[in-house]
Amino acid sequence: MKNKNIRRAALVYHAKPNPGKIEVNPTTKYSSQRDLALAYSPGVAFPCLEIEKDPSNVYKYTFGGYCFLNNAAIAAQYLRDQGAQRAAILDIDFHHGNGTQDIFYDRDDVLFCSLHGEPQQAFPYFLGYADETGSGQGLGYNLNYPMPRDTSFIQWQQSLTAALAKIDAFAPEYLILSLGVDTFENDPISFFKLTTADYFTTGAMIAELQIPTLFVMEGGYDIDEVGINVVEVLKGFESVK
Ligand SMILES: [Zn+2]
């Protein structure tokens, strides 16, 4: 791991062991994302569509990507706690899901696949390389697909196809999709070239897995187009019976 120092960074939340209640406290106690997941009430931990920007950048012990809570990780842990043997997280946000990677890096019960801008050029810069494949029991259960500036859908789709094949082979009971649409061609802070039509295709490809799927919102900064592109993913997903 290249992010050991991140683990020492200051934590900005504190979760009380009180179901349904979360108290933010930047100064007193330190906790972990897992503790927070356990503190959540089920109704909060398993939303159908959670709106937040880039929560997959949130680690066990620190925050990032504008977020304090890693919704995808919380959902995966919740599903495991409820009896699911395996869950997969597919992160198609433009930015590497560094926090999600960190949380599950040494585990083989949650497969993590991330498609993202190559870290030499894009946030979070220090993680997201293809050779980060997990550690210990988790070796082989962390898959990164970094791609260069101006990546088109044709190229991006090859990575998606590869990730979906890995997920299919893993045979998870649930798929959690970290859905960012900052891969859009006009996104002001990213550098991929996906079009609105490509999001429909993306949704349809994911649906072909025929796995119960939870959509968790990640990034998207072309404000006028975010809603349109997200709806296209959902429409594409719904188009497959
Ligand atoms: Zn993003």
Keywords for this structure?
about 240 residues; alpha/beta; six-stranded parallel β-sheet; about 30% helix; globular; disordered N terminus; binds zinc ion
Secondary structure layout:
Layout: H1 33-39, H2 42-45, E1 49-50, H3 71-81, E2 87-91, H4 98-104, E3 110-117, E4 142-147, H5 153-170, E5 174-179, H6 196-207, E6 213-217, H7 223-238
Parallel strand pairs: 1-6, 2-3, 2-5, 3-4, 5-6
Helix pairs in contact: 1-3, 5-6, 6-7
Describe, in plain words, how this protein is organized in 3D.
Strands 1-6-5-2-3-4 form a 6-stranded parallel sheet, sandwiched between helices. It starts with 32 loop residues before the first helix and ends with a helix. It is of the alpha/beta class and 241 residues long. Helix 1 crosses helix 3 and helix 5 packs parallel to helix 6. It is 31% helix and 13% strand. It is built from 7 helices and 6 strands, in the order H-H-E-H-E-H-E-E-H-E-H-E-H. Helix 6 links the parallel strand 5 (174-179) and strand 6. It has helices at 33-39, 42-45, 71-81, 98-104, 153-170, 196-207, 223-238; strands spanning 49-50, 87-91, 110-117, 142-147, 174-179, 213-217. Residues 54, 93-95, 180, 182, 218-219 line the site of zinc ion.
